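Dear colleague,

Following up on Tuesday's group meeting, I ran the structure prediction for the two-component complex that the binding team flagged. I've pasted the input sequences exactly as they went in, so you can double-check that nothing got truncated or mislabelled along the way. The structure tokens for the whole assembly follow below. Feel free to forward this to whoever is handling the docking comparison.

Inputs:
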Amino acid sequence: MLMYTLRRVLHMVPVFFGATLLVYFLVFATGDPIAALSGGKPMSDAVEATLRAQYNLDQPFWVQYGIYLKNLLTLDLGTTFSGQSVNDVVARAMPVTARLAVMALAIEAIFGVVFGVFAGLRKGGIFDSTVLVLSLVVISVPTFVLGFVFQFVFGVKLDWTSPTVGPDAGWGDLILPATVLGLVSLAYVIRLSRTQIAENLSADFVRTASAKGLTRGRVVLVHVLRNSLIPVITFLGADLGMLMGGAIVTEGVFNVPGIGKVLFDAIKIGESPTVVAVVSVMVLVFVVANLAVDLLYALLDPRIRYA
Amino acid sequence: MEMQNKNEQPLLDMRDVEITFNTANGPVKAVRGANLSVMQGESVAIVGESGSGKSTIALAAMGLLARNGKVTGGQILFDGKDYAAASDKEFRHIRGDQIGMVPQDPMSNLNPVWKIGFQVKETLKANGLGGGDMNKKVAEALENAGLPDAERRAGQYPHEFSGGMRQRALISIGLSCRPRLLVADEPTSALDVTVQRQILDHLDNMTAELGTAVLFITHDLGLAAERAEKVVVMYKGQVVESGPAIDLLRNPQHPYTKRLIDSAPSLSSHRMENEAAAQKSASGTDNVLEIENLTKVFKIREKGLKKSDFLAVDDVSFNVRRGTTTAVVGESGSGKSTVAKMVLNLLEPTSGTIRFDGEDMGRLSEKELFRFRRRVQPIFQDPYGSLDPMYSIFRTIEQPLKIHGIGDARSRQNKVKELLEHVSMPASTMHRFPNELSGGQRQRIAIARALALEPEVIICDEAVSALDVLVQAQVLELLNKLQAELGLSYLFITHDLAVVRQIADDVVVMKDGQLVESGKTDDIFATPQTEYTSNLLDAIPGGQLLV
């Protein structure tokens, strides 16, 4: 297990460097952030030179990347065009996104597994068919449509909750966006658990378990459920990484002041340092989440540990 | 035993049992009015090919039919009570402590995510044998099934066990609650012959000691006759014949039983007739393949980052004479398949030479290799996996011709027809797809594909191991016929010595990567020189019955 962990951690290194290099290259080397900063208006050479020096844009690409990496590793994400520390911006937005992600994950995990398991146990039944059709609908409708519909129905018409989220973004405010965010993955979780359950139900070792004289309940709980949930749990883990990266569309629709919204605003005004900094944080979060999934997988499935 | 139970009621009595499966194509009757009984302590074997309903009827006795299967007629009396329409709950009372099961495939019948000990323990608990020092009870159960070092082994996961050890674990589960009847569904067909014998011997001893009745399911009549007092032959869902094992073997009544006896590899004692091959084998020094000091080392990762060498094939030398069959036998892990892969040039030897028709294959250029591939063709074990499911039979057989640029569209079509005829398949087969064919038919297609390029040598890697005995006999006959007609040379990789006796002129015995013994088939079978070979020979089921 120790070697396995070590190997997984080592795998993170090239992924991290590769991803940051790519992001840095795409954002800085393929556009002129200073032009974006000035909004296309003329600027004196002296001012431009100062700005370039401030963002190290007068240096060759590799030196720029090196400085950026150094700053990143010392947890200095730089400043925005308006002079705020990106660290502060991220520190404000991250907890909101984290709250949203955890709520969305809870929704998809609980409902997804419960619906999926019942559908799988009675494959081909009415419940199964209904769930399948509904999940297909959810998968095929784009998030922003779902978002607006929910906003309109539950926020405006029924007035159960506020249609948009305030600057403090409390748990109650986030229920609606979290539901929308969780719904799409929920559909996948249902389908994944359903197929896993149905497949494992006809596995040889399940029949053998019945032959031992175990009760039906124990066969399902101990032999079907645990085996079936391994891929589901790893899917959920990977999904948490995605959700923590911020849901640009959902946060946009509900005006959630999370990391997705910060990124979206930065992209809109071409604020390259913020974009790179935020994306780097997302890469880090994603890589760590994936590591967690790999380790979790090994913990749940003994075959992986020794592979 | 038989006498003493004469007046008792049978432990298991199945009367006019009919079992129906609901499939997409409507209901299918898998068992049609079958009768079968097992007395206390008696061992009964059900013999038949796949699809004969032999497993289905046994599973029905435990209420373990697949969800679309149902007992639609007759009675299933266990200890006098009818279970034909019993609920899962009623069956639960007899599963485990009244009827135990040892399933067919040790690889898929243990739950991979639970420790072996846990899987034994829950069996004991479910049948009211919980409490006290469970770890000790578990270790005892495993030890009784012949698992060494049981206490430590109980803490391991199934994937840390070999196939034989897993089957022992399953036997210990099946017998842990001292059932009165044990259903053993081909309990060793997935194992090496020598392991097979150990396990069956052990199972015999255990059930004799405990007085357990055994319902033994197998496709091998030799095995059935050797292991059971009574044999029941099933064919297409019906019991066609039953009786004491020896009587049935000596004096079969039903034509199907006769065919089974004729084709049981374990009961035949001679090579299939093939004069040409016999002559060449006797006289020839004309070697089509010469293998010299062949060695293959694999690097395997140990714990951590360390790598170690694994000697899969260790300095092996032998020849294949033109127009004859050389069999390479050994248990799994003996390196026999690695040899085949190297001869096919799918794997590079670490050292040593393979000469094909006098030419060193290691020195062939890309172009020469391409030509070489035409002359040596493989047939693999799994006819389900080796044919592309998306390719029609025509496309499968035509493809090698196309790749090697032979003929035009029309001549290729004629060639495919001709090849199908060679393997006794109708020409109309070419528009069909692999999933529409049976295992034996697919293997015929694989043979036709191998023959398309008119090769000189065919490497058969366990080519008949996955087939039922009757089908196996047909495929072997086909291979033999083709050898006589076309002068083919076969390198036949197999773990089954019974098959070797039917088809091979020469035998090479391998163990742990090394060549243990080689020589003429008749000599090796008559006077094996090493203990290993004689063990292998002794392990052929039904071998003793001939004497």
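Chain B has a mean pLDDT of 87.

Cheers,
M.
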